[in-house]
Fold:
Amino acid sequence: MKRPTVVICVVLVAMLTIVAPLLAETEGESPSVFAGTVAQSLAAVIVFLILFAVLYKAAWGPILRGLQDRENKIRDDLEQAEASARKAAETLAAYEKKLVEARAEARQLIDKGRADAEKVAAQLKQQTQDDIVAARKRATGDIETAKQQAIGELYAQAATLSTRIAGKILQREMNENDHRALIEESLAELSHRGGN
Structure:
């Protein structure tokens, strides 16, 4: 604020050094800054003070206010830029933190999904194996039952056949040819029933 005032004072003193010799023209004497009458010096001082007051009110005040306003605006802009930079850095840090959290959560979900899939696959495999074992046991049981039933039927047929043979033997007396014919007949009947 003091620098423009000093500059203006220096400019005015320089102007007075140029103008004063013109005002104090004397014959034969060399021009001097201090040459002239007291009235002229007093008039120069009064003109200087009036010029200084007019320039201070009309030019320096608005110029200084403009410079101060510009300085304040630049300061405010810098502060806003710094605040925006801090806010952007905070937002970026928050975004990066959320991104890291999202990646970790996605990794956990993938791992959980994989573990669940492996668990379900193991359960299905175990269930399939259990079903196969149960089906094998049922089939074995069914085969055993059918075998026992077939053996029972075979024994029943053998008993029936034996009873018939015994009945036929008892009804007649048999010679060796009758005996052989009866055995062949019984075997043929047994094979005929076994084929059905």
